[in-house]
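task queued by scheduler; priority normal; single chain, no ligands, no partner chains; default sampling; output format set to structure tokens
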Amino acid sequence: MKRDFISIDNFSPVELRETLRLAARLKKARNTPLEIRPLVGRSMAMIFEKPSLRTRVTFELAIVELGGHALEINASSVKLGERESVPDVGHNLERWVDLVTARVFRNETVRMLSDSMQIPVINALCDMEHPCQAVADMLTVEELSRGVFPKVSMTYVGDGNNVCHSLMLICAALGVDFRVSTPGGYEPDKHFITRANELASGSGGSFSLFNDPAKAVAGAGFVYTDVWASMGQEEESEQRRKIFLDHQVNSELLSHAADDCYVLHCLPAHRGEEITGEVIDGPRARVFDQAENRLHAQKAVILKLLAPDIAAEFAAGEIA
């Protein structure tokens, strides 16, 4: 039966932990002479409705380094839902490739692709979730937490957006103390709030909502932020700058966090808006570690979907 990774919820908490172990082992193996190429002869189509740097480079490298092949489909030429219906595009692609990765504006689009195909679909970003980013983030947090993961505290400061949603789910599933602070009216979607609370109750983690960023970051070991206006919200940018000003991650806000806290951002960043240059270019920031870990996280997800038996053996250390 085919598996997708459209949402963090597509993987159980156990599977998420396995994915992190797999990503860590794949990262280590990349620096050894041994080449692990279990996907020779397999192919992945990448659909991009939105511009991309990290997603484009890391997904293509991920499958290539696993032995497969990637091809980019520019959505402006395909015109999903205009020139051709989304299901028809899906029905075509499933005859040619083994996997589809989609970076799209609407969650509905990636779900329609999944419903129309018998091959796996990965959500490389949509308006509701960014699950591969969240896996890379947790890999980064685990690396930095000096053996205490998942007993760490993380605070997300800013807009209750797609990145926030995926972080809520993965942190709650893995047992992290996760807090979100947004201006009033910009809280995460209610579905994700409900689901995060459900997952946290079963994992030993916790989930809290705030409108006061100083209270939210109190004692936090990790402080995370994202742009205030995502792609497709450009017309709201000026209004959001005024509303979100007190949610800027700056030195004053970080004075409330743990003394040795780390700062995370999924990038691209707008210095002087959601985060100051002093912070993101300072010693606490680990944003390029996150970016690097996109490659290893995406390798792990691809391998779990296309070669689950090999993924399980490698994550367990049965393949050197």
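post-processing summary
- Strands lie at 43-48, 69-74, 99-103, 121-125, 153-157, 177-181, 206-210, 222-225, 262-265.
- The chain has two domains: 8-129+295-313, 131-290.
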